[in-house]
Amino acid sequence: MKQVVVDPDSGVAPWRQVRDQLVHLVRTGELPVGSPLPSIRQLARDLGLSAGTVARVYRDLEVAGLLRTARRRGTVVAAAPDPSMSSAATDAGTALAASAARFAAEARALGVDPEAAVRAVRAAWQAG
């Protein structure tokens, strides 16, 4: 696997740099489906980042369907991004899926049922 690097002077958040590079590696086939990725701790150590930062990237890419994590096998590439999708569409879809996952987790923690959560999103959308 081509090495992922983080440039602290780039002006782009480190998590975003890692995420974008992993998406690129999967999209170009340098990381084919089934390829193992380093553990969160290992990649964080290699990049000089916190484990939470790398965990965020892995979580976002899992929600987007690009990665899959299994306890015994670790994290592997689950699917290649649809080549017909533009990078912007992939980024927007990934960001939306990650936001939805966070919202769903917060709603569950509050004890809200799914229908009430959807109503809250609709109301927020209309309030705009």
Description of the structure:
Keywords: DNA-binding, Transcription, Transcription regulation. This is DNA-binding transcriptional regulator YhcF (GntR family). One of its GO terms (molecular function) is DNA-binding transcription factor activity. The protein has two domains: 64 residues, Winged helix-like DNA-binding domain superfamily/Winged helix DNA-binding domain (Arc Repressor Mutant, subunit A, Orthogonal Bundle), CATH 1.10.10; 41 residues. Helix content is 57%, strand content 6%. It contains five helices and two strands. A two-stranded antiparallel sheet has the order 1-2. A hairpin with a 3-residue loop joins strand 1 and strand 2.
What is the terminal separation in angstroms? Answer: 43 Å
Q: What is the CATH fold-level name of the largest domain?
A: Arc Repressor Mutant, subunit A
When the domains are counted, the total is: 2
By CATH, the architecture of the largest domain is named: Orthogonal Bundle
* Average of pLDDT: 84
